[in-house]
Amino acid sequence: MSMTYPLDILLNDWKAKNYVDLGKDCSTAEVNPLFSDSVYIDRLSRIPAIMEMPYNEIVRKFIDMYAGRLRNQVSFMLSACNFYMPIFEEALDAYGLPLELKYLPIIESALNPSAISRAGASGLWQFMIGTGKIYGLESNSLVDERRDPIKATWAAARYLKEMYTIYGDWNLVIAAYNCGPGTINKAIRRAGGETDYWKIYNFLPKETKGYVPAFIAANYVMTYYCDHNICPMETNIPASTDTVQVNKNLHFDQISEICNVPLDEIKSLNPQYKKQIIPGESKPYTLRLPINAISTFIDKQDTIYAHRADELFRNRKTVAVKEPTPTTRKQTAAVTGKGKLTYYSIKSGDTLSSIAEKLNVRVKDIQSWNGMSNTKISAGKRLKIYK
């Protein structure tokens, strides 16, 4: 669970830096009022949810953490919801899933689109590379669609729906989202076939034990934050965006300089491109831009693709290899000499000069007969000699 990202990291995202206003007066207080168990039980029961959200001391521990030590992160995430909740709600609704699942990325990534776990999971929904590929998220040296908020959300919705057809219980589904269905199935077997999350609880890995309670607590704190003196950071809604299709290789610098869009904004709107390169020549890809830059891009496409192309794309498509010519190398073809062919076995200590003297022939003749371009010889080899 990654909800413990430091606030300075969360605020480093381009959207946060440009649209979350830390300067405005906010009524988030340092004091977190404590409530009795009965109040928490009542509040959880009044959340309009399909998913079961029971209360116990483990859930309470997470509520205390979110409303206490992590209250500034909660304040940030309440504002970041403006960026991502419409995307989450649309996909969940399309698949007929409980809308309370929109808070799953809060415990997965703290709504940090650049989040990467120690295990290598990436993006808002923290897909591992293998699972991402199963659900249609491309990963290669240049593209990682796990970081694409829209594509990853729709992939997550498909995954959650498929898990529900297997388990028929939402708490088991989100537990499986955390540790994988294999681990859940093992816990069910060890619990004697029980399919209640709370009955297999003690057979789960440590992190998964906290996952469902953290999810319940996240739903609680995102609903009842006001009662804990937490206030969302002021958010200005970003300008509208739209997409265009890219069919050639394209670098963010080309877009930024011709369309006059800040590079950081292009990176934030297109987080799936790892090296600021869209490899459009391999297949068509989508580019998201502010709506006022879309017409500029369409009107100036040829100029954009050509701009600094030789400098930004240095990988060569072909490389010529020159064959050596008679002017760049010595002819080394062996020549048949006059007289009878005999062979001389080179001995240790022999040189071409000593052999020529011993056999009463010229060095250059031995070289010509044996196709030699220099005077190097090796003991044990044989030389052709014509006499």
Automatic annotation (TrEMBL):
<dbReference type="Pfam" id="PF01476">
    <property type="entry name" value="LysM"/>
</dbReference>
<dbReference type="GO" id="GO:0016020">
    <property type="term" value="C:membrane"/>
</dbReference>
<dbReference type="InterPro" id="IPR008258">
    <property type="entry name" value="Transglycosylase_SLT_dom_1"/>
</dbReference>
<dbReference type="InterPro" id="IPR023346">
    <property type="entry name" value="Lysozyme-like_dom_sf"/>
</dbReference>
<dbReference type="GO" id="GO:0000270">
    <property type="term" value="P:peptidoglycan metabolic process"/>
</dbReference>
<comment type="similarity">
    <text>Belongs to the transglycosylase Slt family.</text>
</comment>
<feature type="domain" description="LysM">
    <location>
        <begin position="342"/>
        <end position="385"/>
    </location>
</feature>
<dbReference type="InterPro" id="IPR018392">
    <property type="entry name" value="LysM"/>
</dbReference>
<dbReference type="InterPro" id="IPR000189">
    <property type="entry name" value="Transglyc_AS"/>
</dbReference>
<protein>
    <submittedName>
        <fullName>Lytic transglycosylase</fullName>
    </submittedName>
</protein>
<dbReference type="GO" id="GO:0008933">
    <property type="term" value="F:peptidoglycan lytic transglycosylase activity"/>
</dbReference>
<dbReference type="InterPro" id="IPR036779">
    <property type="entry name" value="LysM_dom_sf"/>
</dbReference>
<dbReference type="Pfam" id="PF01464">
    <property type="entry name" value="SLT"/>
</dbReference>
